[in-house]
Amino acid sequence: MPDELRPRPGTLSVWAGEPGHLDTNATQPPVVHSVSFGYHDLDEWLRVARGEAPGHNYGRNSNPTVAAFEEKVRELEGAEAATSASTGMGIISSALYALLSPGDRVVSIKDSYGGTNRLFTEFLPRFGIEVVLCDTTDHEAIEREVVAGCEVLYLESPTNPTLKVVDVARLAEAGHAAGALVMVDNTFATPINQAPLALGADLVLHSATKFLGGHADALGGVACGSAELVGRVFHYREIHGASLHPMAAYLLLRGMKTLHLRIARQNQSALRIASYLESHPGVARVHYPGLESSEGHDIARRQMRGFGGVLAFELKENTLEAAGRVLERLRYARLAANLGSVETVAGPPATTSHCECTAEERAAMGIPEGLIRYSVGIEDAEDLVEDLSRALEYLA
User: Fold this and answer.
1) pLDDT tens per residue, range 235-275
2) Domain that holds residue 72
3) What is this structure's pTM?
4) At which of 217, 233, 256 does a domain end?
5) Which is catalytic among the residues 97, 105, 111, 113?
């Protein structure tokens, strides 16, 4: 669609993917729970089963409600195609296993999400796939490893939980020059704040459980890219079986209606809170790309439209015990292993993003034990600042 005719993100959040999936004059996508789909004409059924005609055959492969969700994300990311899975890790693992073979080489960053890191350090090597993890902000080191040869360059920006930013356009160019596929986890930024495909990525991945759904009530994952790449990921996922449930797809669709509004509020509030924390005497460091003091601020300004709703901060008393004392004093924050919700959610990496890793492994990734990841909700920002102020009082 020409740019002048393409709806803006706020309109796409509401309308994308839905008109073609509405039945019986319903104004909302129906939840289709049927496991199978019947046909009176065998020839038509064969064409659908072979993928030669539109339609659905069996729920593990596709579903009308799921298709509406995939289409909404596809349009928001400006991709040719999209496919989904039952969780964020379901789509990440499906993409990696679909596109890699024994003997291949992956180049990535050290402090990617803990589940992704586990794939890189524990599972892919068991299948004869070499993985090289570079310091996240050392673009020269990443480029050197890419030039040495790789089939996949896997990036995450901003990273979970340290909010580091990588130059997607620069690294995508290096990856393509080496013949690599470039994957980007866009969960923290969302398509509202960042467009990895426009920056050169080949495949964009989301844990839809987070900001896309926004209400902490549905698990899901989604991948967007070219029809050829997405088709390969879909084929692995349909055989592997990690299918998105239609009820979860409906909840994600409903949540995405307000995506643009939620992200605008969370961008604004997170910057306000990060600025407050940066000036607090008990806080040693704040991780947020919207701060001018952030190492990745200049890159973020170039490639992001907003800086996101997640920040992290380190206390001067940088221990898990000190973080716990602050967290337990928060009134307006769920202490839970999630993010991107309408409610503020907070916790340390030891119980959230990197609970699968040991303290030593987290330290090697540059993730302090006393780090607090703080996912800003849609509450009044000043109430959240006052809440943090009360929780941090004991540090005085």
Assistant:
1) 999 999 999 999 999 999 999 999 999 999 999 999 999 99
2) 3-256
3) 0.94
4) 256
5) 113
